[in-house]
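Data card: per-record layout.
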Amino acid sequence: MKILVTGGAGFIGSNLADKLISSCHDVVVIDNLSTGKVENLNSKAKFYKIDICNKDIVEIFEKEKFDIVYHVAAQIDIQKSIQDPINDAMINVMGTINILEACRKNNVKKIIYSSTAAVYGNPNYLGIDEDHYKQPISFYGSSKLSSEYYISTYSKLYNLDYTILRYSNVYGIRQDKNGEGGVISIFLDKMMDSEDVTIFGDGSATRDYIYVEDVVDANISSIEYGSGEIFNIGTGKYTSVLKLFNIMADICNKDIGMIFENERLEDIKDSYFEIDKSLNILNWKPKFCLENGLKKTIDYYESKGI
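The structure for this 306-residue chain is written out next.
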């Protein structure tokens, strides 16, 4: 199939493009390289350097005639969304509408959208299932939720098939230390330089950490499964920040100190997913436990001398 990956030079997008190409799909990548990196691009992918808000994207759709569109590109930094909500909305909402318009005009069969746990806000209960009330506490969460509604509406009006995947905290190779869920990358960056790590709050906050290869597999399954549905993509397990730190320090075999600072208002205390729907409908399940995923990630960066 001819498949587009927006944000295909970024963390999740580049890993996804690699897997699609290894599965013999014809892959095209769109990325403006604002956060993506040229070195992440697969040499077998056709690359267009263009912003998702650019109206000329429709010409790429007309030329390439995509079967499937993976919309991964986004502004993912929660802090930046609060500092500049207009830019966040331009990229995440208007950029998504631009992609949807190109899909509509060129008879794309399906769009698979990368969303986030941030759409839920502070959970009323744990684990969070897909029916949980949505009340984002950041503009990033609001913009991603808004895009979900646009996708659903386009589907109803124009018969565009879709699957929406809400990720928990994704980690793995090529992750930038900035952005949503980047605590592992931030910790690793400090540990590699033998620097103390900053922890906001007392370290008891919990998250559902999922390895990027598992996220990629969920995206691949979404080609065939999950039509018109929304899925939580996580492990269904929670880990405190302190436990995460200790596991990483042990793998790195380094004696690293911790600096505790006040909690940030936009930070959610505890969050982990209920993933039964994904397990039952997507024909998918996570393969990596946290320890194995972290070891694979750390081994990668150590081998690169980063």
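Known properties of this structure: The first strand starts at residue 2 and ends at 6. Residues 52 and 239 are 35 Å apart (CA to CA).

See the next section for split statistics.
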